[in-house]
Amino acid sequence: MTSALSDVRMQVMWARLVSIVEEQAQTLMRTAFSTTVRDAGDLSAAVFDVRGRLVAEAVTGTPGHLNSMAEGVRHFLAKFPADGMEDGDHYITNDPWLTAGHLHDITVVSPVFHRGRVAALLGCCCHQLDIGGLGQGPDGRSIYEEGLQIPILKLASRGKINDVLMELVRQNVRTPLQVEGDVLSYIASNDSGARRLRAMLDEFHLETLSDIADYVITRSQAATEAEIAKLPRGTWHNEMVVDGYDRPITLRAALTIGEGDILVDYQGTDAAVRHGINVVLNYCKAYTFFGLKCIVSPEIPNNAGALAPFKVRAPVGSILNVERPWPVAARHVIGQMLPDVVFGCLSQALPGRVPAEGSSCLWSVQLRAKAVPGMEDRNGRAFETVFFNSGGSGARQSQDGLSATAFPSGVRAMPVEVTEAGAPIVIWRKELRPDSGGAGRTRGGLGQIVEVGSRLQQPFEVLAMFERVRFAARGRDGGGGGAPGVVRLASGTPLRAKGLQEIPAGDRLVLELPGGAGLGAPGERERAAVDEDIRQGLLSPQTAERDYGWKADEGGPLRTGTAGDMSNGS
């Protein structure tokens, strides 16, 4: 076979691997019980070689899951070496320090047997709504309060489920049927991928995945290093202040571009806190790598080779590298800010290529109610539910930021009808928040207004874990900041952005999600774009006049001036 034909063959197999793991992800979404997986796609699915190296990942999934799993599969192999595995084995853990950063993410890894030997490994990682304990909120003071810890264990041996483990899981969660159904769906997902992978190995007359893995990883690493070689050498610094739990937290980064790698050093970042917003190193790496790839090498498929040139350092004991038993349940409120921290460094090194800051942190609305004694006949019952909401992303160099879009997490919002069908709640409003996008040549994306209440005449609780309430997204290159978030009751009482709080019977929870920041001077924005924002109700005339110098008279809108010289709009 000529070199050219061999290369084409490898590329075909590479594309096939991506389609296999995407089918694996879609199987998860069709069989999972939780709406977080079934409707939002809060998951990852990937294939690994027998050395535990990430070879290909599904398009559907989140950076936090995918890049954490890229680091985590080697821990499974350290405990259960491939040569001791049997066909039909499945392995499980939710250890935050080994995989995706908190107990609510369960990872299942399964060997793929082909012609009597382990040819590859398949893995999936999914957000589990219920894992017992206090629930997914920042109130825990240690990992022991946050839920059930599952070390790396056998979930199934030669196709037989570990009934003792499943009984233990059911006993420790509030929704045992849902949790068990989810775990079984992870097995189904890996099994579906295994069938497709074995068919591919047969078709291409391969014993294992080793040769194609070497090809994929070597090519991807070389391509990433080639992109880094185009960048300027040096070190750039950035810092960001975020809300924290009860005091602000400062995240500091120094980004160094070398000959063939990029190092992000978080030296100087604030220490860990006694609430569950801390981040383990795996998760810190996951979102740092994602931020780098977005700007440096967005077209290169994600795998071990594509990630190899990126390095991360975070001081042990800092909020970005905590050790056991520090609480980590709401680690996303800090971890999902890291791409913006990285962008702040890269914007100095690569002007004109980096977006403005966005709302970044996903606003997960986790609601809970306890059964009310004596009200059983009036449906005074317990429930637990979650639905995802997103603010605006930062303005891009040539386009406005995306409104109500989950960046960097990438998860989808659950349909309102699905959420209301699963719990006795009503989502009264879910609409774009006017005037929340930062002004600029390109405008920041808009946040949302979400209003939710209970159908039952009883109080319910919110496990608040919201960010960008005190410190809004910052504009870039003269752009304005996004609107900060607001958490309150419909009756007007303000609520804290983090922590378990009660919504009184008959009242409603109202969330005003933050907007993304603008990019470039507002006076450089096209007049037609301002007019269109006003026409669509995204921007009020008052805010347009304040931020863009926009004015109108009986003859209609006049041309805009600069934000700094309103007289130009007359």
In short:
With about 575 residues, this protein is an alpha+beta fold. It contains 13 helices and 21 strands.
How would you summarize the topology of this molecule?
Layout: H1 3-31, H2 35-38, E1 43-48, E2 54-57, H3 63-79, E3 90-93, E4 105-114, E5 117-127, E6 153-157, E7 160-161, H4 163-171, H5 176-203, H6 210-229, E8 234-242, E9 249-257, E10 262-265, H7 281-296, H8 304-307, E11 310-313, H9 332-335, H10 338-349, E12 363-369, E13 383-389, H11 416-422, E14 425-432, E15 448-454, E16 460-465, E17 486-489, E18 498-503, E19 509-512, H12 527-535, H13 541-548, E20 552-553, E21 556-557
Parallel strand pairs: 10-11
Antiparallel strand pairs: 1-2, 1-5, 3-4, 3-6, 4-5, 6-7, 8-9, 9-10, 12-13, 12-16, 14-15, 15-19, 16-18, 17-19, 20-21
Helix pairs in contact: 1-5, 3-7, 4-5, 7-10
Task: Write up what this structure looks like.
With 570 residues, the chain is of the alpha+beta class. The protein folds into 3 domains: 3-221, Beta-Lactamase; 355-518, no CATH class; 535-569, no CATH class. It is built from 13 helices and 21 strands. The strands form 5 sheets. Strands 2-1-5-4-3-6-7 form a 7-stranded antiparallel β-sheet, with helices on both faces. The protein has a 4-stranded mixed β-sheet with strand order 8-9-10-11, with helices on one face. α1 packs antiparallel against α5, α3 packs across α7 (281-296) and α7 runs parallel beside α10 (338-349). It is globular and about 80 Å long.
